[in-house]
Amino acid sequence: MGRLTVIISSLLVAGCTAKPAAVVQGWDGSFAEPVVRPEHPRPDFFRDTFINLNTVWEFAFDPADEGLAAQWFEREDVWDAQIQVPYAWEAPLSGLGTIPEMYSIVHTAAATTYRGVGWYRLQLPEVLPPGDDWHLVFGAVDFEATVWVDGAEVGSHRGGYAPFSVNLSAATSGQTPPTIVVRVEDQTELNDRAQPVGKQGGVWYTRVSGIWQTVYLEQRPPTHLVGVRVVPRIESGAVDVTLEYAGAAEVRVEASLDGVVVGEASAVGTAATLTVPLEQVALWDVGTPTLYDLTVTVSSNGRDDVVHSYFGLSTAGTDWMPGRSPAEQSDALQQAKSFIFNGAPVYPRCVLDQSYWPDGIYTAPSLDHIRADLQLAKDLGFNCVRLHIKPDEPAKYRLIDEMGLYLVYDLPNLDMETKNTEGFVGRAHFAQTQEAVMRRDRNHPSLLSWVVFNENWGLSTNGSLLSPTPLQGATEMQGWVREMVALARELDPTRPVEDNSAGGSVGVFEHLDTDVNSFHHYDDDAASWRALLEAEAAVTFPGSAANYVGGGAQDGAPWWNSEFASFSAFGGSDDVFCGLFGSLNELRRRPRLTGWVLTQLTDVEYEHNGLVTYDRATKEDMCARHGVGLADVIGDDFVGFEWLPGEALTAGATVQVPLWFSQWSSGEARGRTLRLRWGDGETEAAADFESAPYEVESVDGITVTAPIEAGAHVLVAEVFDGDVRVCANRISVLVSG
């Protein structure tokens, strides 16, 4: 038999080194196949006694759903396949040998991928070591799971995104190696479309069924930690740590930075919120992603439960931009809020991340694959990722935290063709999922905002894909949306909540109760962008009812574009870069528009509008010429042209170039130098200017001489801070003789 290395949760990562785990005494760890995804899946909540079960399990489909009646949980003769956990049964990495159907814009009733019941079985190679109770933990199983141990049912769970666990001790003799059996049922789209699915199935991507996150064993004493909530108190240099556990206990909390203990607190009782003063205060932000280790000990009846976690010191919210509050600006059209992080305005420059993989579907092949995607986003200049309607693996959130990116977190929507009316069971499934994933993930210091719904998906009462029910006039649905927004704020009152990332399926922007005034727009024409933004800017001000329904009105909430691209899902095969210059030029031209989300980081199945392909191959940036590429226009600072692409010039004429500058890199005014050149030529003109923070200011008086040769030419603008180029842009002009 092969050897399974017992996983020791060393988690040696930059900025935060977790304590190494103890070896599980008495566990030899022999399986027929080696473990995959060997790291502990919960870097935010792990115990030292950790045995990874990501090996090959026996498997059987059950299309007739006869396994329960036939007691497959006790059978030896039904296992006709093997599956590699933790990959969904649709994923090539599962080893089942079936390649998932790659969807196109068709109704998936015609799709051939299997929907129904699948069974898993794993015989552990050894008796579990004695001591505290052993718990079997599933990171995520889509959608309904029931677990047996040695023929005895030990637990069940419903929901495709949240972890659950079962206690094995009562069902095992302790004399023989236990056998684990799991029945999973996933009826995506067949059960009245009641499951939260994100972009699985429907008109979107390959479904995800079965176990798709790590399965593992850990020991817990009877009184053990169930949950931990960390709330930074930056102004007082402390954190509030709320602990959930059953029974009375003594609890101790220890915070460390770079291996040095910097804060401690303890309490005795049946519940506890401890304030932990910190001797060293280092804020988390994208440029300084400092992480503290956190160790929690729950002691009762002479037995300790020790859980390792981590946290970062950050706060997120919204507030009036400097100079744009009602107290400072009487003109409502000049009033505006922005995102605030650690008390300062920030401009989130996000990329939409579907987090799909051609071989693993929902599950990345390795941490290195996740890390490479996030590094790509950083290298291109993004400071934020919007993980799109898919609560992801906790390990990915850890990497976002340690690599320094803001996180916009989408909850998974119900199916676009759901008939969602009062009493619909899908509403209970949605609320259950929302609560579970928000409780799991709300401690992450990178969190910038929550998105409850996306483009009205799952909010239709008629189940029509082509003409879904708008929220306007759907009073009962409005009430449910408000309930879910209120639930999000109750679960995390420390961060902004977006009710409905607005646009898309109903063709209008529909907000009800939101901390963020978002909109979506896809267009490859800069003139159309300018017209749209001018029209939207005219109706975007506190008190305006534009983009709001149900009696709602704007209150100055940050106006931002939460999805855009200059290309469609099908148009990206031709070019994904050139049109972005015009789109970004128009977005940054509006000083009250305080952020955006570019669709998207990678291609996904039939969608070819990623910055790289689905298998992460590089796409040629056909506009990265004359020393200017996409990264030059995805930064804190931006230089823009008032001209639209294709501006007509006369050969040899002297022209004044209308330019402007947007600064978000600093809250202080700074001296800059702007230089203009034609193509790859030498500097044609230059000017010094002082940039003001959070504004779009003209840079006047710069003239150039148009080329004498008729045709298309490229004018390049570059801004320097001393000798450092901070941003650049380019525009095509047409020169006539």
Produce a short descriptive summary:
The protein is mainly beta. The protein has six helices and 42 strands. The chain is globular and about 90 Å long.
Summarize the topology.
Layout: E1 12-13, E2 16-17, E3 51-52, E4 56-61, E5 81-84, E6 116-123, E7 133-138, E8 141-142, E9 144-149, E10 152-158, E11 164-167, E12 179-186, E13 210-211, E14 215-220, E15 225-233, E16 238-245, E17 249-257, E18 260-269, E19 272-277, E20 292-300, E21 303-311, E22 316-320, E23 337-341, E24 344-346, E25 349-353, H1 367-379, E26 384-387, H2 394-403, E27 406-410, H3 425-441, E28 447-454, H4 475-491, E29 497-501, E30 517-522, H5 526-538, E31 559-565, H6 578-588, E32 593-598, E33 637-641, E34 647-650, E35 654-656, E36 659-663, E37 670-678, E38 683-691, E39 696-699, E40 703-705, E41 711-721, E42 724-736
What can you see in these coordinates?
The protein is mainly beta and 737 residues long. The chain contains 6 helices and 42 strands. An 8-stranded parallel sheet has the order 29-28-27-26-25-32-31-30. The protein has a 6-stranded antiparallel sheet with strand order 5-4-6-12-9-10, with no helix packed on it. A hairpin with a 2-residue loop joins strand 41 and strand 42. It starts with 11 loop residues before the first strand and ends with a strand. The N terminus is likely disordered.
